[in-house]
Design goal:
Layout: H1 11-14, E1 20-24, E2 33-38, H2 40-43, H3 50-59
InterPro entries: P-loop_NTPase (IPR027417)
Family: Belongs to the ABC transporter superfamily. UvrA family.
GO molecular function, one term: nuclease activity
Length: about 60
């Protein structure tokens, strides 16, 4: 199979991903750590993930 790595902020795109790696917790000097990884459903359950917080709402639409 093929793999593609993208940087994305659109939740409609993120929620269709097979696998997410959420970096943070902030940008620049405050980021760069893996905050969450997994399927969209797994990331949505991880406390401390800003992506997960908003992804949870997007998945329930």
């Amino acid at each position: 199979g093929n793999s593609i790595v993208i940087i994305e902020h659109n939740l409609d795109v993120i929620k269709t991903a097979d696998w997410i790696v959420d970096l943070g917790p902030e940008g620049g000097d405050g980021g760069g750590k893996v905050i969450a990884k997994g399927s969209p459903e797994q990331v949505a359950k991880i406390k401390g993930s800003y992506t997960g917080k908003y992804l949870k709402v997007a998945l329930n639409k």
